[in-house]
Design a protein that fits this description.
single chain; 156 residues; alpha+beta; Thiol Ester Dehydrase, Chain A; six-stranded antiparallel beta sheet; elongated; hydrolase; HotDog_dom_sf; fatty acyl-CoA hydrolase activity; EC 3.1.2.-
Length: 156
Amino acid sequence: MSEELAGRLTDFGHALRVRVYFEDTDFSGVVYHARYLHFLERGRSDFLRLKGIGHRELHAGALGEKMAFALRHMDIDFIRPGRIDDILTVETRTVRLGGARIVQSQRIVRGSDLLVAAKVEIAVISAEGKPMRMPPSVLTALAPAETVTGASLTSS
């Protein structure tokens, strides 16, 4: 694989390739359902990293006030099984962005086969764990592709 460790930014958002190892599977060689959550988290974290929004920087207040992202809600559909040694792609895109929350759509695919689809709602919280608004630089960096080309951000 010639991609960087953190995947790559795409027209829609971010793509990260992952290999399924023995540790990711159950006794039958099928990906254990909870491992998909790990793959999805890696996709979200690397998307942020490539957008210049590292978790350490958020926590340190380098992008404004000290803040963090906390998973608030997730809907997930397990459609097809992944198997040992598969190369999967985790796709992450911002669907909606408000002042204090992010809604992302994520998919895990094997080639053209959709394995997992997830809708993720993320809350923006202060160092004290209270909801807070995102700094403008973070809003701009995470804006959905169609927002960057002219639509406005949603409010929340």
